[in-house]
## 1
Amino acid sequence: MSNAGSNNKSYYISATGNKNGPKQIHVAHRRSQSELTDLMIEQLSLEDVQKHNQSQNNTNNHTNYRGSPIHHNKNNNHYNNNFHSRNYSEHSNNNNPFSPPKINIQDSDDRNSLGYMHKKTGSQSSAYGHNRRQSLVIDEAKKYAAEEQAKRHGNEDTLNIQTSSNLSLDPPPSFKFPQSPEKHLGQQSFKFPPSIKINTKKESPKKDEDNFIKTPTHSHRRSRSRNNFNGYSNKQNNQSLSNQHSPFRSVSGQSKDNNYNSFTALEPPALFQPGHNNNRPSNGSIQSNNSHGSANVNGNGNGNGNGNGSQRKALYTPYLPQSNIPDLVKQGRLVTGVLRVNKKNRSDAWVTTDGVLDADIYICGSKDRNRALEGDLVAVELLAVDDVWESKREKEEKKRRKDASIQHDIIPLDSTDDYHNDASINISNKLHASNEDYPILSPNTPNLKRYDSEKPGAGSDSETISPSRSSVKRRGSLKQRPTQKKNDDVEVEGQSLLLVEEEEINDDFRPLYAGHVVAVIDRIPGQLFSGTLALLRPSQQTQHDNKPPHVPKIVWFKPTDKKVPLIAIPTELAPKKFVENAENYNDTLFVAALKRWPITSLHPFGVIITELGVLSDPNIEIESILKDKNFLSNEYLDANDKTKERSNFKPLEIKNETYETRKNFFNENIVAISTLESITDFSFHINESIKGKLQFGCHIVDATESIEPNSSLDRRARKRSTGVFLPQKSVNLLPKVFNEFLTFKEDKVSLAISVVFTLDAETFETESIWIGETTIKPSMVISEESLNDIVEQGSSKTVAKLQQIANQFLRERIDYVDADVSVSLPLINSLDDEKVLVDLNIFENRISSNIIEEIKRRVNSIVAKEIYDKLGDKAFLRRQAIPNDTKMEFFKKKVNQLGFEIDTSSASGLLKYILSIKDPNARRGVEILLFKLMSRGKYYVAGKVDKEQHKNFITNIPLYTHFTSPLRRYADHIVHRQLKSLLRGNEFEEDIHSLRITSEYCNFKKDCTYDAQVQAIHLLLSSAINDMSKPTGQLLTMATVLQVYESSFDIFIPELGIEKRVHGDQLPLIKARFDPMNKVLELYWQPRIDSATFIPADERQANSYRNSIKNKFKSESEEIATNEFDKYNNNEYLVSPSFQKELESMNLKIPHISFPEYDPKIGALQSFLSTTVSRRENEHYIQEITELQRIPVLLRAEIGMALPCLTVSALNPFIKTED
């Protein structure tokens, strides 16, 4: 790509895949991350000129344009419509962290005007704290993406580059425009939801008094700066963090959590404050206020808010005015999307544009991410990929040199290597050749001197040992990660059940698009984060022995979620004696919220909400997960007694006429299926009385008939949005009294909404469908477990018919005549809905659950079509997006390498092929790869999404919604009300805007529910593995290799439902060789060194994660193998009796592991080792690792971190080798 940086002519690339999106996207050019693009200069200058013009027109304001601050009249709300204040209050933007400083420029009439200074060239920083970025001659950006695609497909010679013409453009459907200035006082800067109102006097509310503040429906949406949450005025909202009371300095009798569990409104607390007090000079990146604990960071970056501050450098660029973003999106100069943080390398991120572009946008580094968080809706300006990539390489080279000086590495990585990733498949030819004959060894590798000395030329190449080239060691193709990167990987990989996967990028496979965030448009309200407190940042702890050189003015909150940045907490808001006794809080969990993030601060500022308790307490860990995922579980609690729910929440009285006017099915043998004891909202009947026909009725509890729309209860249910079902604890959507009243019970008359199918008795094909409001009286209620037993035993003709019906629905859905519900894809199914009956193994599935879920899918699709046909744009639906071409090709390539020619042209072809794989381990492996490729389902309003994107891709259903579980999903309530309005001939009154907001909030809480469930399973599974391995410290089990890389390989253990990565630099290896063509990794082992007790030299250092682990290594591999086979041969569980009882109380199966065939002639350990593929060549001891191979691995639960970590290592096949 050419760098025509001097040409300022605008160029565009074509957008694809979205009729409502921009047809052309502007691409900018810059030389470095410190530059501002022409677009930013233009927009920020325009904003200041508008403010200046407004100031001149406002006679109540007296402004000195030579630098004195603007003083607005607090009571004057009559602003010019063209003025959009970016501040929170009605004052000037002196305290606005996002607005740049005001400086003098000359306008067209040679008058002094407020604007922005910038330079085209040179290294000096401008008034923004950044150099100017110049426009790029870029029709070549689209050409670059096409060239990159052609390179990946191997047809570089044939390119067809199309240039779009100027068209009338519309914004993408996911974009949320600011409301018109005519209706609002001014556009304000982005903020978090409002603060907790902390009562210094504990007041007891009257009995059954409803303390819920009525708020409009739109308060459910992501946080918008123009909303006054909790009834606070702008003036109240604009209080600084300095006025925040500490929960640890409360008056006598005050709750430690500051009444956090008292429900006040739909949004949780934590107000984002746009600026800091300008009451003292500041000289550090983060400082706290002397008197109130607020950091004095002048938001506009100049440090001279009151004339007494020192100038501070802006670390981030100001956000563009939100009032201008809609037009810029329409013009194609910006594109919007949702940001996700790269969990492996958290400084990087990706933005998904929902079909506007054919690939995600790469965001390189924290500066380009510009303070955006995971899940934010952001505006992005596209940049030239070559420029961004060059900047990335420069940053990583600096990082390499820094680490080299610390770790004294002598073996360089080639500059094309991914510094953060030892799971790449591309090896530098030059490096590989230099190590072809002579392995180059690190001095930190123990017991290797004899191998190093045997080859006289090893390590003598001057280019190879240049310390300026790299900071990461290599042995052969084996990468050696820095200690801090190992620590990060242990937590990132160890704290999840499946590995996090991102698109692989390197010099050969660069991203197709790159950009930088220029504004945060929307953010989910009231996000909370659990974590621990420390006096120092992790990178400083080893330097200062965990003690700061002086009393700090801030302490650091380290979130459990690695995608959330470190949060600076003013010392005054920390526990009272935290600074003096910080070590006493090492195992204490807290909950924090973000408050503000000015452009001059590297980290955001926040406040501690509450102290949860000690890490080792299982109840505390579950509370931490729930709060971390925004489930406070306090919506229905009595204000005077938090152990009880409020007594004034009662179902509406059902009138007799309601029962009489509905069709009843009292004569049918209706069976209700209970998922949990407290939730039974689905029932069915099968009637075979008509010859050749079969009537199949599905009945869903009519929950909305007992809940008044927009009542206090309805708004609370909307806030909770969904029930949460963990193995250890459940949080229901509705109060207990409602679940008791609504749930189907034997011989109890209940209101329902029914979908009744008339089926052919032989083929079970659908002939007609009836939908209506009904009354039913179930003749029996059975649990899913009991239903599963009946299916397996084949003891019921009715249940057999039910299974046949489900099979036919499945075959029609995916167009596969051999499909059967007995073979399912539980991971793929979880993309739409999480489990209610939770298993300890995420790969586990019951055939009864498959039957019921397949029937529910059919009912949901029928209802979706009905409401869409009648309501059109207002229909509340659910979709699952089609992966972009880049991701799908990446998936196809991986599956092809496993030996499967998979069909990715359609969802039905994809599902058919996976279900047809006979080997269950191979099928599960392909399912894992597909699962990590797909996004989760999303609710949407039909009129806000292009018709081409309505499809629920992974279920292969054109129109889909959620209707069948109203006792656990609020989205189902919306759909019930829409359907009932059609059945009754009434107009559905809720407007499309509030429906969209509800859909966004439901999406957020739905994802939170799934994440909480997975984390809870991981927590319990880690405890189980720790219990199983107590005698020896580790488990030895068989695993399946899923993917092979140059220095590591991925395995999954189907019996436990986990996928992990085996890192070569944590094994006693001499070197490794990787064949990328055949995907074979050869491990060159040190003989007679046990993997079970081996600890790399750098992991013995003080800054290694191993120092925080409480359960240390105990036994060698032979003892582990012998202990396990003894119990296996005696039919004993590895789990202790006490833990068995705990699992049984949760209705969970006892976990087990996989063993090889035991051969008493060779013993337990050799029975495991006999499964490996190994050989000896001269003095080398080599093991071959190939994909889908079964190998023995060592598994352990690392206990002692905020969340336990599961780690694996390979068993050394040459542990007993003799010379």
## 2
Amino acid sequence: MASATDSSLLSKLESSDSTGIYPLFSDYLRPFSDLTNSKKSNQHSLIRPLAKKFLPFLNRALSILPKRLSDPQKLNDRFALQLFDVYRLSLDCLESLSSQLSCKPYSVHVQRVRMVHCMETAGQYSDAEAEGFRILESFKGMDFGVRKSAKPEGKLVPDVVNGGDDKEFVLLVVEVVVTLVKCAALGQMKDDDVYRRVLVLTEEVRPWFRLLDANAYEKLHRVLVTYLGKCTLFLVGELACFDGKLVRTLCYASLSEYAISSLKDQIYKVTCISFLATHFMRDHYTYLNPQLTLQFGRRICSSIFSLQEDMSSLIMDISICVLDSIALECKFETESTGIEYVELVSYCANKCRTTSTNLCITMATHLDKIAGDSHQVRLPFGMILRLYAAGLHLVSSDLKSRGGHLISSGDAKNDKSAIRILIDEGNILQNVAALLGCCGSYFRNGCKEYGMTSSADYADPVSQSCSHLSSGYEACKPCTQKNEKAYLFVYLNALRFICHPLAELVNSERKQLINPTEGAFFTTKLCIIQDAFYQFGDIFLSYQSRTYESERDGFDENTKVVLSVAAAAFTLSIRTKLNMKRSMHLVKNIITSEWIQPQGLKHLVATFHNIGVLLYRNKQIKELEWRKCNDRFGHNYFQAKALVFHCLVDLENKASEALKLCCKASWTCVKHLCDSFVEKSTGLAGDLSESAILEFVNDSCARTAFLLDVLHRCDNHKLKKTMAESLEHWSFAGKVFEMLPGPVLLVKQWVKLECKHCANADVDSAQTLYFLLSSSVKVSKRTIGIILEQELLAYEEMSPLYQEFCQKMQLDIIGILLQDVYVAPDCCLQKSRILVKKARVLRVSGIEVVNPLLFVECVLVDTKFFLKQNKVYGEECSSGIPACHQLAATYCLRALCTQEAEPNSKKIFQDIRAALNLWSSVAIPDNCSADGPCFLVPENIVLLLYNVIDLLSVKGCTDFNHDIYRLMTRLFKWKNVPPENFLAMLWECRRTTHALCISPVNEELIVNLSEYYGERSVSVAFWMHCLKGSLPLIVSFQQSFSFFFSNPQGSSNHKSSFRSDITVGEVKEAAFELISSVPVPSRSVFVAGYLYYDLCERLISSGRLIEMPSKGFSRSFRVEAKEFHVSVNDSGFVKFMEWSQKSVSSILLGKFGAVWLVNMAGRLMAAQGERSFTSKANDMHRPFLAQRCANKAGRYVSIVEYGEGRRKGVVMVLEGVDGEGWQTLAGLF
């Protein structure tokens, strides 16, 4: 039975409070010191009693210690060291008693190995490593009953001959070696000798691994491979601290062990990912997750390529070592093997391209070498490796001066074109052509649905070159359906590696490529690049069509590149004049694909719009050059004219094709945005700005308007189809957004082109937009009405230039609206409005017509009948709010028409009273929602009420003012219009008073405002706050009330920013701000006029007639880089000045000259199709000459003033985009 001392020590060892335990153990085991001091002859007599006394105690202690040390986090460092000292002491005592034990000679070593594991778990890697090597050294001297061989010199692991027959001993030796490798990996010592020992251990332990059974081999070899790889990762990451040869050797050893391990399938991923995986196996009995292996292995190359560029030689050596060892060990036995190896090559190639140009040649050469070894690489992987090699050659071919990237400097004067340099490297592109031909043959079968072809399918010089070059490769069997999808993605990535930099190069040098200067050789080489783009696009679309969205891992990067490639392919089609239809087909497939996102579509919109504009400007420049030198051709004039005409038509056609793609992408994007907005409203999408979508729709209309202008010049038969499709797309957006503005720019461009077309042709051949849309099922009657009213307004604006034609078209449109569009019973208001419009058009044309009052009365009768039929008249009007509003508005229209026909009729006041009664009878709930009936009130009701107020003011009637102001207040309240906007609108239109009221704000308006906004509506501060958004309105308000607060002290009593002492200069400055832009908005002119009118009243009342404002006039406008200023002095002379960066010039005109200037601008716009344009005038005994000219910047009109036998001044006004400059000149005054 154990003594009390034994029990107390073991109890203390097991307890949590074991402080100071080592001195107790040392004192208790002091008798063992006699063995070390005694002679060998006496040791035998001493060992036996010691064994009898201490052996149970030691066995018990050695069973407790591993448990106590199994969780080092519960122990402080000092106490853990004491326990390890106790562990060593106990093992030393047990080993001294081993002669008395009936066990195998390595039994005590098993206990020591357990202690090594405890040290490793506690993080004492150096102590564990030292103890492990002592164990291995002691293994060499063990006797297993076999003849001992000579002790190996310099070996760390014992010879397998001694103990190789004992399976337990074999397992123990391998376990010690694996633990030592693990300690080296986790210790991360920056000492070369540590990892040299690891290499020796790995090499010497191989014979011992062969003696293990399958399960033990599997477990221990996994751990060895894992931590050997971790050692490799550490050395690669700290490459500057270690010998390069050691790192290469360790990489090779790690990959070799991976190749013979159960992790063989993961070896090809050993070199490519970021530093994401930081936690690895800590227990060798844990199964190794393949994903962790992927993360672990790919860190090697990431570590290598993150090093400094001055270590490029060592970086490349290690990379090549990795690629060679993988290719040598694995020999592409399976499809997954080859695919993963190609992924590794892809990563290394991309890193070489972005890290250093110096690495590209070496890597490319080595990839060609690996691909050429048929014993290592089989098809199609060899071809794909050669593609990566060719891509690296493209980067490195004489482009090192550009930093290793295929990007042009853009300086044509100082640098040779980057694409010119690339074309000069003919061998590289020929090699690419051959590879593409071979790969195209291999992958073509599975991609027929997208028309994928190789170069051999085209009868041009490039196809012959590719066919000849590809004959040097072995015959390529087409990929089968079984392995096609597995290979397709890696081939797509290889094509992207080549095409992406080439596409960036082509797009960056688009201007140089579109202006051809080189010969057929240059074009032939460009066709090779073009074929590469087509193959990438075809493979991309084929892969996308057969892959589910959840399977498109890594697909996003290709979607970004394909947009750039498609634009580059289109650019090369323009340059080579080949495969234009194929390029457009590729772009259209991309635009209509389900995977395309609005952002990608916007990129295509911008790209093809720029291409179209560039081509169109080139056409204008060539047209100008022809006009300048057409007199130099002599007898070859007609031949040269035909050649130039063909060139101009070709440029216009290409520009139209680019703009068609731009508009197709633009309207497709509109549809996507509308769909996303609908999903957002149902909670299925993220935030989308409605205003941003509406702005994009308007931009799409502007782009289509430009396309229509180009089509009008080159392809008029497609103009109508394009217009109809665009309006259908716009109508789709109109269904989603009720507040979408009409397609004004689109309709104006159509009207402008119709005017030009019919000016010198048969007027009867003109068609309205109704004939384009009437057969469409996508456009509703409501939308057709909106579009036709826009067309009606556009023809009204063009009337000054094409009066007869525009009047005819207006009457045609009005007839269609009345007979075919506004035929529903609820369109009475629209009918009455159109009837009034018809009367106005007929009167302008000089035709006597029946008074519109009769038409309005007919509409009024129909409206009443409709309301009675639907029981929404009188007291039940609240259930039919839109119809009631229409009836009330019709009453107002009849009152206005009656004033014109019978000014003294009492029916005017009766109709106004009937309208106000109808509006006041509409009961609107306080909680009316945005979708409720109260928000269906027509927007032009307020404008109609303005006209009624003016009519009553003219007739001197104030009986209805209170009701009208109350109704207006209710309307704005229903629409949730803030009081700031409401009052600012009323003050701007001067509807706050009437002709018989001396106050700027009518008392009835104040009373109605107080019902909704309280007493604050009476204060000046409230009004100043509402008008603060516009300085001219603030000045106007202060000037109007300056009569009431003429005393300077009076204004100081108001706690606001109101000033009664507003100066004349401030009023003039505010008025000038309103009318300084060109064209001047009518609202600004109205406000400026009232500012001057109130100022005149103010100055007259104070007797300051000399300060009355003069009839001065000033306008400023800008066309591209030039600024223009027009001013009229007090004497009535007009000074027209032009500013540019280099000069300032001006001309002086009188009143007649000013009229001639405006009329000349109008005739200039109408003479677009004429060959030349000149206009002359004589004003103030000075002749003026206006002549249309052109240069490389575009067309302009030169206006020259002559006098005293010489030219006195000249002003040149640019045409601008869409004739903006000349339009501004025509509307100058």
## 3
Amino acid sequence: MPDLFNFDDYDKCIFYSTDPEPTYCRVTIELVPKNLSQSNAIWRIIEKVSSNKKNYRHDLLRHGICASKKCGKYEGTIPECLNRIYKTKYGHLGLDVENLLSAFSLSDNIRSIINQNTKNRTNNYLPALQGIRFFTSVLVIAIHAIMSSALVAVSNPQTVEKSITSFTSVALISHLILFQTFFVISFFLTTINFYSHLRRAHYVTLEDVLRKIVKRYIRFTSAQVILIALQSRWFVHLSRGLFWEQVMGSEARLCSEMWWTNLLYINNFFFDHGLCLLHTWSLSADFQLTVIGLLILWWTQKNSKRLFLVSGGLLLVQVTWTFFYLGWNNFEFGTLYTPESLYGFTFLFRKEWQATWTTTVSNLAGLAWGLLFGYIYSHRQNNTFITKKSDHIWWYAIVLISTFGTIFFSGYYKTSDYYSSSRWFAASYGSIEKVVCVFGISLFIFGTLQGLGGFVRNVLEWAPMHTLGTLSFGAYLVHFVFLNIDNALKRNPSYFSPYLIKASSNKRNYRYDLLRHGICASWKCEHFNETISECLSQIYKSKYGRLGLGTRINQLHCETTESGYVITTKDCIIWTVLGTYVVFVVLVSVWLAIYGKKSVKNEDRKFSSVGNFLSAFSLVDNVNSIINKNVRKQGTPNNYLPTIAGIRFFASFSVILVHGLAAALQIATANAQAVEKLTTSFIAVSIGNFSIFVQTFFVLSFFLMTINFYSDLKRVQHVTFRYVLRKIIKRYIRFTSGQIILIALHSTWFIRLSRGPFWEQVMGPDHRQCNEKWWINLLYISNFFFDDGACSLHTWYLSVDFQLTLLGLLILWLTQKNPRRLFLASKTLLFLQIVWTFLYLRWNDFEFSAAFTPELLYDFKFTFSKEWQATWISTMSNLAGLAWGLIFGYLYSHLQNNAFSTKRVNVWWYAIVIICTFGTIFFSGFYKTSDYYSNSRWFAASYGSIEKVVCVFGISFFIFGTLQGLGGFIRNVLEWAPMHTLGKLSFGAYLIHFVFFSIDNALKRYPTYVSPYLMVLYSFIDEEYKLIPNLFGFDDFDKCIYYSSDLKPIYCKVTIELLPKDCS
């Protein structure tokens, strides 16, 4: 069949074209048989596939054409030219082009497609509501993200057709019905507030009702006005691209034309004309139901029986209206989100979706159940309805059956053959589905507020949920903007995963004499009899010979339909062990939850020694210890160091953010020149320098180690060498337990998750290194073995930390009777780092630290750079963290009761901290981007030797100051209760974050597009770059391997070195 989606390269057509007026067009072509009376075999296949509404319409082709290239010598108009091209292209298949459905500019084409924290009074008594609101928001946003991945063209439509209509996918998307939770919470709180006000004032006037409505309007509108203004004017100018007009252009036009429907909260009645901020239909429905609900409460305030009667009437109206609307129009009970309906979100224009989802009548159940349960709770909140254990079980059963029962039955029904058979059944089930599901949601909310739910309730009442729940409204309001921008920025059709020369002389650029290409060898070499290597060599010689260049293949890696990784006995053993461990953890957690006896006062569980050992593996106990700030062991330093967890969290966040930016450039990029300008700009280099905050972990580690040591020394008078060994073993176990699992997964399972053009490049090295060099990680000496690559490269930090821990404990043990020796040893460590760094940099004529140029970031080649290894991951280059940690740890343990906080001290403290930390960071950014960077190696050696020492002093002084009462607002943020939990999670987050970055890169099907709007750091592209051969070029991996008609398809990644043709 003809390609459903096919797009020419947008950037080459618009930005790199030599044509004075480059034109790029998106076009939709409708195919028909040439001879209507005698349809050919190809047309019959197209007709058969397209007749299944679970597939795309394969008679509608959506293509992107560089019209200035294809129609450059054609004398007619562009529509005539493209008509002729497509008639010629598909004529030999017995197909004809009926018409071009879309206009031939992006604007007209898309137009035709689209035109079809503070707690309030109530929350003080309803602690679980914010948690429910947060988890509902996360679920809805996640499902919207999945759906939006099919909003634009995809490179593997067959995969979408199979996966998006499977039971799992449909059942997952059916969870959108839990959006009704927002309506229930809204009217539940409205009712409780109303009766609270009624008890105080004895009568609620119509003026009070109007005041409530006006407040609701202002709350909704203030945010919407800003979003509509940005959407209609600014967002559309952020960038340009293949899908930009389709996604962002339509939103801008609709927000310019239909903004008034949003501000009047009637946009859920105007879907036929398109919708500005389509997800805000919920705000309109909510506002309309709020007006109705407040009027009902006002009318029934003197007679509560009326409230129950009216609520029952609302439920009856929804059931009756939905039944007759679906039955009368012969509609399905809910929209099946097919690939065709998700493309361009055309399901928005389907009447059955509008009728059963966005209308006011179809959401009356949220209002009715919210009023009923709100009334019951406000009048009986001190009464416990459920006391027996059997009542708890019934509550769980009713909630699960009412909510998830309806969701999964809906998923089963929509994917069965019965879906289109009985429309009366569809009308019957569709009329009660929402009513039953919303009842389950309401009963769940009511039950958690009555003390039911156990562990689930504890999670919902966790302190940070108040903040996260408060942010939910804003997150919901803006999430579609980010999803739209992400789709609009794509330079190629999305890959839908069922899981997820002159320039080269400047070292700040890529090497343009090394081309990294992905080649479908079975296409390019089908007429060659030579080997693949000879074939590709011949192709590149012919291609670049006319430019006076010779070629040489440096690297060649080819893949076929068979994976190169065979499951071995070792893999099976590791999978079995990990699986057994997971089962063990689950069983222990269940056992402790069921048989764990508690004391009368509900305090700590009482177990035997075996039980205490097993409790360390309990999921429930571990989660509770993380989220409950009161589960701190008495006597530990953290009782007296409230800012430590917050500092640890923000340091982790900074380091992970920088790693994420670097990881984005690990693979090929679609706009290499933009990356070159980006990575050499002052802002980008300064942001990259924030990775120096990894030193915070070293300082915290040895700061706490020193305080613990002197705390124990005061208790026992003398610390033995056995104490030192015990501390070292505990440290080893803590680090190793997580590393073993990570290494096991890297060496076996991760490599088999998927395949693609970048999969081997990103995941392959870690797989091989973790198979061969796992032992250096477990011996914590990996920072000495980077020359040949490393397993989980970011774990160099653990090796350095462990080595410095050994050294630090020995120093503390040797100096315990004479603190002066401790200061002398610490000063010696600082002196050693400065002298060693200076001599190493100067002797080798190195820069003071590696500049992260595009070429070094590609494949993370900077990890093989001697200056990076010397100044970043060696033990000697990190002695400052140990030295300052020992010094400030000693000072704090002996002076913690002394107050230094005065206004004058505060000012000096701020000045020293800012100059020592951010001063070194930004000066380094300025120096690396200046012309002076490569001129004076004496200066580089001098500055490089003291940079870390000064910066780490600033970090240590900051930590010490916050614990002495300095910092004001900053200290308050660091001491915020949720920071305790976030700080505890930091180590785990650091340990696994690189896995997610790697998998994200490896799953990409095309080179990464670095958007200028994100950094706003370059504004032009040099003319000479247009003459340089493509640095990165990749054929479609999936078409080559999975959809090829070749019996043995082969896809090769090749690195070609360009040479002058005449070397003399």
